[in-house]
Amino acid sequence: MKAANAQPLIGFKQKLESRQAHIGIVGMGYVGLPLALLFSAEGFRVTGFDIAADKVATLNAGGSYIVRILPAAIAEAQKAGFRATTDYAEIAGMDTVVICVPTPLDEHHEPDLSYVTGTVQAIAPHIHEGQLIVLESTTYPGTTEEVVAPLLDAGNPGGLKVARGAEETGVQVAFSPEREDPGNDSVDRRDIPKVVGGASAAASAMAAALYGSIFRRVVPVSSPAAAEMTKLLENIYRCVNIALVNELKQLCLRMDIDIHEVIDAAKTKPFGFQAFYPGPGLGGHCIPIDPFYLSWKAREFDFRTRFIELAGEVNTAMPYFVIEQMAAALNERGKAFKGAKVLVLGVAYKRDIDDLRESPSLTIIELLRKKGAEVAYNDPFFAKVGRGRKYDLNLTCASLDHLEQYDAVVIVTDHSSYDYAQIVERAQLVVDTRNATRGIDSPKIVRC
Ligand SMILES: NC(=O)c1ccc[n+]([C@@H]2O[C@H](COP(=O)([O-])OP(=O)(O)OC[C@H]3O[C@@H](n4cnc5c(N)ncnc54)[C@H](O)[C@@H]3O)[C@@H](O)[C@H]2O)c1
Questions:
Q1: Whether pLDDT at 305 is above 80
Q2: Whole-prediction pTM value?
């Protein structure tokens, strides 16, 4: 990265240091809202942008729609000047704009950048000289420079251009991946190093200064593409290793070896091994999706990302494996899926969070229904599960009062509020996909 000591950088740093910088965050979701609150807690004036008028209204009324963000945190931020808006014209008043909108896959399993392009087209008419635009949405290498920058260039009526390389004037553009781990409070957000890569040296320096004002360590890389690829490497590493343990779990079951005992023993090695855990399949907005952004981009280079495809195959098959194991367990008890009453315990994609996106529970419920089972669910984070991008369940949360009435209880998400010993005691059959019943010895438990 070239050194940058341009005027816009000096002015920007001064505004950051004096907390005069006005920060705009686009996308008030799981990533954008906590980031907005973090900047606000550091004394910055923050405006949140979202196209969802109901979210904007909730935030401006001091409310929250994300379980782990308490209304008190919103109220605190409001006192420091935080407000939300749907009006993109307000982008003009921001010193920096951070974009945190969704990047899902479309029905053909290809990147759907429409949220990013829609956002960039909407902000382009309002950008100004020296403003820093940062993309945080996870995406394939090249998006910032090949998609975002040209749309900004084309969409600004004043002819303002994105600064590239050593250029010091223009609008400054960078990429900085989000590394939040929802539900994991073991690391202070400020201690998670922040990777930044700018389209120009000035953009890199400005992004480093911006994040340096809240994160304890900033890691500059030479380009937005390197920053984009860094995020994908992290998530692909996770996806591939989860697939590996999911495959080994299936082998261990056949060999009558406890995979969890093996992982616990292996992780005592002080180097060269990081523990990953098997489960009913992948969920969330990141691990099941992001790797395929790279697979798609790789095709442009006539390259096949075989590890990603294989990991995808193994992980996608896990809910089907759970169904096979359940069928075998019911069969042993002289029962079939048809007409069986099944309770799915936990529908969130992972423990202690209120996020259903891509959750394996959705596939498991759908498969159980197809086989003729009567399915109910319980999850402390969801009073009902209606309709989403890829599901239409129309279920309300069942009580845990009469567990004995179910032919099988399948633990899909191991929320920490459940009393597993009591669940085993009262249920007829417990199919445990998360090792939530470890330490409990009962013939009613089938671990898979
Ligand atoms: N959730 C995570 O744990 C996590 C972690 C790391 C990275 N990411 C990445 O961060 C990005 C955002 O994810 P998220 O989980 O916060 O998504 P989300 O769905 O929770 O939030 C996105 C928000 O953007 C809003 N939005 C959509 N289009 C918009 C537009 N044109 N203008 C303004 N607002 C718009 C939506 O209404 C929503 O409130 C994704 O690229 C994701 O891959 C997410």
A1: yes
A2: 0.94
